[in-house]
Amino acid sequence: MIRTLSCRRLAPLALGVAALPGAALAADAPRTLDLSASYVVDTVGVTDGPQTGVRFVDLLRVDAGADLDRAIGWHGARAKFTFEAGTGAQPNVLAGTLEGIDNAETVLNRPRLFQAYLEQDLGPRARVQVGFIDLNSAFYASDSAALLLAPPFGIGSELGASGPNGPSIFPSTSPAVTLRLEPAKDLYLLAGGFNGEARVIGDPGGPAPLLRQGALLIGEAGWTGNHGKLALGGWAYTRRQDDQRDTDQSGAPVRRTAWGVYGLVEQPVSPRITVFLRGGISDADTTPFAGSLQAGLRIGQVIAGRPDSELSAGFHAGFLAGKYRANLADADEPQRAVETGWELTYSDQLAPWLAVQPDVQYIRNAPRLTGSGDAVIVALRLTFTPPGQD
Predict the structure, then answer these.
(1) Is the dihedral angle over the CA atoms 145, 148, 151, 152 positive or is it negative?
(2) Tens of pLDDT along 187-236?
(3) pLDDT tens column, 65-103
(4) N or C: less crowded end of the chain, CB within 10 Å?
(5) What is the pTM of this model?
(6) Which is it for strands 33-48 and 374-384: parallel, antiparallel or unpaired?
(7) Residue 216 neighbours by CB distance under 10 Å
(8) Which CATH class name applies to 7-384?
């Protein structure tokens, strides 16, 4: 499965422990150290597809954030660490989709330090981050799509499938520098440089050498007025990537610049309903996807008297690059030009320490060697958080 997963959707509930000396005791006061944790357990059943069956996916995530101003007097500085570990299986092996079906699924089921970075304010309207950073925590991100389980709703497949081993997103990040500017009210500018290889402490071999595969450069400009968001972004790798099909006279792949652009909009249409539309395109020479599209809505407090009840529905499409399809056809694995998916999910907080989320997906995916290639997925996500939280 192409690595398009994003752990941004697995945001944990706050523990709220003021653990360092001098931390404020009041619940609403700033804390020197903030801890949060979540444990996600997914039961995923593929009821129709290339193969059928039930598999389990789990992911433990622990976040720690330190206010360095309160801790050691370093004005405007904060540190963030994220630890992750999982032991689950790979349900997408049964479903056979290209874009994926579960944003907690990974082939790297081993403990890892997912994020570790320093954030420094540069005045009231600017800040910089340095360290191992999840690109999707800021770039190509839509809060209104965050409840959905399918990975394309986290980051477009044309970017998620790029680079030598995927960009700096779940399950592995890379060393990076990012800058956020807010030149005017409701306006922001983002810029980032990420190591071309994504690998962290805990991955086989440990962190990758800096710039051995060049860097991924990305920028985004956006407007966040009226409780919505409108953004445009672009990305490119500094080191040329192998063309998927074209070769030179010696038979070696032609090297080309990998690049892409994307845009997104999300807007409330009522006090409880927010809609979103996202999409992007790539060079189509170096990545399996020429582009992607996602659309949907999120509805809050679906059931009266249950403030945490939420419903979300979404559609996603991944447009396969022509060269990628030609290679698969040569290997007797023909693919359709587009893989599409529909998802409906509902989430509710049954207890302060337990959220329950049933989910159903239908994927109209490219056929493999046999069968129609369509897949029906029924899942149940349980999210556990430590009891007694604020």
Answers:
(1) negative
(2) 999 999 999 999 999 999 999 999 999 999 999 999 999 999 999 999 99
(3) 999 999 999 999 999 999 999 999 999 999 999 999 999
(4) C
(5) 0.91
(6) antiparallel
(7) 26
(8) mainly beta
